[in-house]
């Protein structure tokens, strides 16, 4: 299959180029660019676990990345990034290929640009998914969790496949279209989210996932609007000791985004809807279940000084829009899944301070009602979680 060939041949080659860009340059290739970043975070919560034992204060959030890009020919650009991410029980810090792709420009004029990409490609879902791991590009300590769930991050982050990109430039607006097909990456976190636990069986992609986005921007970047959608299907093949049968999970993940910037103010809002269907899974409450997740947030950021930004955000997320209170799932599970595990309502206040163009500090306070955004890998007993809780987060980031 195309995805297997990409993983076997192209990704290692591009990753090697990323790691050894200095040697590539030394051998006579011009235009090699190498960049990197590092973030260390500290998290303190009043209850529950978020990226480690945060009730006692956790430093278990670290991001390290290095990327390189080069023009192989006039029309082909190669780029790749290696990423190490530690985040409590969810991510161990093992280096992985974040993206690695070849981008071929078919046509480029002052009025339009058309290209094809192949490799491991970051999915341009919403406004922030492509750059969510680079702290300098995020709209806060993390991307808004009610839309960009970290607990299922790898499922929507990237895909191994092919993509077509098209852009048209005009006086009134620039319009871009992105279409892609590939295999998504499924890790144990995805299993915990969509199956409720980690099992011995195999949870793997069922065929190709399809991704699309249309983005409209004013040429002066004061207004951006986009509609993104991804469709994927996953199969579960039970292990010998697993208490549930084989099954399939299919979902559609859609985001509508709007951002407006005026003077020193930036207003951002995104809305997400996620219809999910479970088939099979004999012996489990998931058998034949359907749900539609729904989330949204509103954010305002003010550039108080050239080096200081203040931010306020409010967001809500629901596991199933037909059971917003969570009362039905609590009743169906006899209280094993309390109502508050089915929603999150989060009020956030934060400050960003750019000490230099290369060094940034963030501080953020969040007030939570509900625990939908929590990982059940880190909080294995849902009934033991606390519905009303606070989080303080501090991070320092460096880039070159």
In words, what does this structure look like?
- With 400 residues, the chain is mainly β.
- It has one domain (102-399): Porin, CATH 2.40.160.
- Helix content is 11%, strand content 53%.
- A 16-stranded antiparallel β-barrel has the order 1-2-3-5-6-7-8-10-11-12-13-14-15-16-17-18.
- A hairpin with a 2-residue loop joins strand 14 (290-305) and strand 15.
- Main sheet makeup: 16 strands, antiparallel, barrel
Number of helices: 5
Percent of sequence in beta strands = over 45%
Structural class: mainly beta
Number of domains: 1
Strand arrangement within the widest β-sheet reads 1-2-3-5-6-7-8-10-11-12-13-14-15-16-17-18
Number of strands: 18
CATH class: Mainly Beta
Provide the succession of SSEs.
HHEEEEEEHEEHEEEEEEEHEEE
Question: What's the shape?
Answer: globular
The low-confidence parts are 1-29
Short description:
The protein is built from five helices and 18 strands. Mean pLDDT is 92; it is low at 1-29.
Question: What is the topology?
Answer:
Blueprint: H1 2-19, H2 21-26, E1 33-45, E2 58-71, E3 76-87, E4 91-92, E5 96-108, E6 112-122, H3 153-157, E7 158-169, E8 174-184, H4 188-195, E9 202-205, E10 209-217, E11 223-237, E12 247-262, E13 265-280, E14 290-305, E15 308-318, H5 327-332, E16 343-354, E17 359-370, E18 388-399
Antiparallel strand pairs: 1-2, 1-18, 2-3, 3-4, 3-5, 5-6, 6-7, 7-8, 8-10, 9-11, 10-11, 11-12, 12-13, 13-14, 14-15, 15-16, 16-17, 17-18
């Amino acid at each position: 299959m195309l995805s297997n060939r990409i993983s076997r041949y192209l990704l290692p080659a591009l990753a090697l180029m990323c790691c050894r860009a200095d040697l590539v340059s030394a051998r006579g290739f011009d235009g090699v660019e190498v960049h990197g970043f590092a973030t260390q975070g500290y998290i303190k919560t009043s209850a529950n676990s978020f990226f480690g034992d945060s009730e006692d204060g956790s430093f278990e959030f670290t991001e390290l990345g290095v990327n390189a890009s080069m023009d192989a020919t006039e029309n082909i650009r190669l780029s790749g990034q290696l990423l190490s991410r530690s985040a409590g029980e969810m991510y161990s810090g093992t280096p992985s290929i974040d993206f690695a792709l070849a981008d071929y420009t078919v046509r480029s004029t002052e009025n339009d640009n058309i290209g094809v990409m192949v490799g491991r490609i970051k999915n341009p879902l919403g406004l922030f998914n492509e750059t969510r791991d680079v702290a300098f590009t995020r709209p806060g300590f993390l991307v808004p969790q009610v839309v960009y769930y970290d607990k299922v991050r790898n499922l929507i982050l990237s895909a191994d496949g092919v993509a077509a990109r098209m852009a048209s430039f005009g006086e009134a607006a620039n319009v871009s279209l992105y279409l892609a097909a590939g295999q998504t990456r499924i890790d144990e976190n995805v299993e915990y989210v969509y199956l409720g636990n980690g099992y011995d069986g195999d949870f793997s992609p069922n065929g190709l996932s399809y991704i699309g986005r249309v983005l409209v921007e004013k040429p002066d970047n004061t207004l951006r609007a986009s509609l993104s959608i991804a469709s994927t299907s996953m199969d579960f093949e039970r292990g010998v000791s697993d208490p549930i049968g084989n099954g399939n999970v299919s979902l559609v993940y859609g985001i509508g985004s709007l951002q407006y910037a005026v003077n020193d103010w930036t207003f951002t809002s995104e809305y997400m809807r996620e219809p999910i269907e479970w088939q099979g899974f004999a012996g489990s409450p998931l058998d034949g279940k359907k749900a539609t997740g729904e989330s949204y947030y509103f954010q305002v950021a003010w550039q108080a000084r050239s080096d200081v930004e203040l931010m306020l955000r409010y967001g809500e997320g629901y596991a199933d829009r037909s059971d917003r209170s969570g009362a039905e799932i609590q009743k169906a599970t006899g209280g094993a899944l309390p109502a508050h595990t089915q929603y999150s309502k989060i009020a956030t206040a934060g400050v960003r301070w750019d000490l230099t163009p290369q060094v940034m500090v963030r501080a953020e306070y969040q007030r939570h009602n509900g625990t939908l955004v929590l990982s059940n890998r880190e909080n294995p007993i849902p009934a033991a979680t606390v519905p009303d809780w606070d989080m303080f987060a501090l991070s320092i980031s460096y880039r070159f």
